[in-house]
Design brief:
With 161 residues, the chain is mainly α. The chain is built from seven helices and no strands.
């Protein structure tokens, strides 16, 4: 999202008949979700983009609520599949393009969160890899050190004969 995104030429207003059509709702929700993930999971960025597409504040608020609901359902469905054993052995690979000084604190927090999740699931090697990546990006990430500290004894116990 650039500093001048609000100054982009706004498309003509979308009338309610078009907005409430099933096809338009489906397409705009998919578009909003794409923007959400491209813009590092920012609802504010989605709001600006939808505004530039010609949607009113009321229409934007409705789509943002649908997006939040869709995301919550997706997370719940995923967690149910993990809990039921349908999904096992999730591995999250660190991005080689993430280097110190080129990422924001949010990205470091994601690595810590992913590492903590892997630790909770018992995927200790992947958890260690993700926490190491977080520390590589920010050597002052105390939460990464704390999670790594709780991981190491568990890893040692598993390796003992």
């Amino acid at each position: 999202m650039g500093i001048f995104d609000l100054f982009k030429k706004k498309k003509p207003a979308v009338d309610n008949q078009l907005f409430y059509s099933k096809q338009y709702q489906t397409e705009m929700l998919a578009y909003a979700q794409t923007v959400y993930f491209q813009k590092k999971q920012s609802y504010e960025a989605v709001t600006i983009e939808l505004f530039n597409q010609g949607l009113s504040n009321v229409q934007i608020a409705e789509l943002i609520e649908k997006l939040k609901s869709f995301n919550a359902t997706m997370v719940t469905d995923f967690q149910e599949k993990v809990d039921s054993g349908e999904i096992i052995d999730i591995k999250i690979d660190p991005d080689d393009e993430d280097v110190k000084g080129k990422v924001d604190a949010g990205q470091v927090d994601r690595y810590i969160g992913y590492g903590a999740y892997q630790l909770e699931q018992g995927n200790l090697d992947n958890a260690l890899e993700l926490l190491d990546k977080a520390l590589e990006l920010d050597d002052k990430a105390t939460l990464a050190y704390a999670n790594k500290g709780s991981l190491m004894p568990r890893k040692a116990i598993i390796k003992k004969p």
